[in-house]
Amino acid sequence: MSRPDRRAVPTATPGNRRPYRDREHDPAVVQRAVAGALTAGAYDGRAVELLADRQTRPIPEPLGELPARLAAHDRPEPTLTDYDELIEREAAR
Hints:
The chain is an all-alpha fold.
């Protein structure tokens, strides 16, 4: 284990205020989670926990109704003329 890994592991071990559930995961999974968190620039045990729990979380259902919900709020695309009007109104204040 490299030196940065050793610095991140204590944040993810039992005994801290929010103990990491390291007994629920294979040590190789925890090591990959630590490496992934460090690669992403995170030095917090919560990032390690998130990455380690990634395999056990259910896959979210696709947002099938999203296009219909977005269509209900469909608006015309703004133009530069609209932007110019906003600037003129602000300047008139």
